[in-house]
Design brief:
The structure is a homodimer. Chain A is of the alpha/beta class and about 280 residues long. The first copy, chain A, folds into two domains: about 1-170, NAD(P)-binding Rossmann-like Domain (Rossmann fold, 3-Layer(aba) Sandwich); about 175-275, Orthogonal Bundle (6-phosphogluconate dehydrogenase C-terminal fold), CATH 1.10.3660.10. In chain A, about 50% of the residues lie in helices and about 15% in strands. Chain A has an eight-stranded mixed beta sheet, sandwiched between helices.
């Protein structure tokens, strides 16, 4: 049995490394648009060979899509047109649009919508690492619409990636990811822009940057090619959380501006409840 | 020679651990308002004994202030009234207000304004750790106004903490810390508030929280008792950077709302320049 990985970057490459480690399949076939990334993926041993999408579909039992979400939306219907008994797994970060797009496709059952809640701020084949997924959450979305055997095959990969699992509907998934992933990236992008702007007039500003700053700004290294499509596909939820976040920042601003320190203290103390959630 | 540490929390306690490790002084005397923290500091071996502030001043050559900045502002003038040839080092996170307050004090020369750019999101004696300061930056502010011997004594501690050093004036320091430290805390507080609010109606929202979310929100565990005074003492700078940050978030919001994806892509790409700065 062969597995095709479409997009040999951080996610696709990290899946390749892991599945090769455990000899899960006969061959891992990479599908990759960029010639330089093709070379890197082969050199780094993320995949065994590179094939065209058409060939890879024909030659594989499982096709895993790890390209940016707009590319997934473009290619998924055509991929489903070409499958017989293969399983197509989409690992993208947004789900509502893609699921309504292929809801009535005759091959809907061969498709499994999954989202591994794992990643780093780096991208490309060089960013791929073994163990990226270990103990992280794989979210299945509308799994009940996949054929039972297709789901079982997708889940056997999740198991090999040593992930936990969770089930959601598409709206729930897209809203939750907006709140615990997409907004974190937006705040980092905005924070980087804020400070880089100031650096122009204040050359030494980064001299004092410590671990707190690094922690809140590191996601600003994330790829615009990956994130612009995510924000686009999850626009309504992202706008909602962004507005609420600006609103919370404005509240902090207003208590400070009006020197209402008891209220500022109270807001900070309330935010401390996040301790319940994160270690 | 004895050293007094006023405030045996994260910063004071971590200094105590390190100076005791290397037997830098005869005794480390802790000054601590909270009885429960007094006990913890002794139990954890952060200090050798607890004394009142008055006794500690009399019995020490070096007095290090590691209480919240509003407490430093309250106590520093009175401490300087009591010193003869001791050295008083303030390790607070804001400097302009404190420096103008004691600028004309007859004992100004015995005082060294320093700010260790080190910390974690935890507080209290239990948060103290060895090595907290290693390779971090100690910023001296208006060091030229300290007596040479006082500065040398303070710097010998910095050396024992294995820190790098930097020199700034007070305005520069307070503005830079607003941009690379204070704003990071505000964005985390606001992000925590945003998501905690949503949790009320969406119980499972944190199920999908991954390392990106943790990274941007972890500072929201920081103590309101420490941070409210910092924002208060650095109010003008903090308001400036907060307004600029809200402005940048609003720009991201507006490009997404108007579906101007080329501009959104460009903003994200521009924010990626932070790669130059952080590893």
């Amino acid at each position: 049995m062969n597995i095709a990985i479409v997009g040999t970057g951080l996610i696709g490459g990290s899946i390749g490394i892991r599945l090769k480690e455990i000899n899960f399949s006969d061959k891992i076939i990479g599908v990759e648009k960029s010639e330089s990334n093709q070379k890197k993926a082969l050199q780094l041993g993320l995949v065994d060979e590179i094939q065209s999408l058409e060939d890879a579909i024909k030659n594989s039992k499982i096709i895993i899509l790890t390209v940016p979400v707009d590319a997934i939306i473009n290619m998924l219907p055509q991929i489903l047109d070409q499958v017989t008994d293969q399983v197509v797994i989409d690992m993208g970060s947004t789900k509502s649009n893609i699921l309504s797009l292929i809801n009535d496709h005759p091959k809907r059952g061969r498709y499994v919508a999954a989202h591994p809640m794992a990643g780093t701020e780096y991208s490309g084949p060089e960013a791929a690492i073994s163990g990226l997924f270990k103990d992280k959450m794989m979210v299945y979305v509308e799994a009940f619409k996949s054929d039972e055997d297709a789901f079982e095959i997708a889940d056997s990969i999740t198991e090999q990636l040593e992930m936990q699992t969770s089930f959601m509907n598409a709206d729930e998934h897209d809203m939750h990811t907006a709140y615990v992933s997409h907004i974190s990236h937006l705040t980092s992008f905005a924070l980087a822009l804020t400070v880089l702007e100031k650096e122009k007039s204040q050359g030494r500003i980064f001299e004092l940057a410590g671990s707190g700053f690094q922690s809140t700004v590191r996601l600003a290294k994330s790829s615009p090619d990956m994130w612009t499509p995510i924000f686009r596909q999850n626009r309504t939820n992202v706008l909602e959380v962004l507005e609420e976040h600006i609103n919370q920042l404005q509240k902090l601003h207003d208590t400070l501006e009006s020197e209402d320190y008891p209220s500022l203290h109270k807001l900070i103390k309330k935010s401390n409840k996040i301790k319940r959630i994160i270690k």
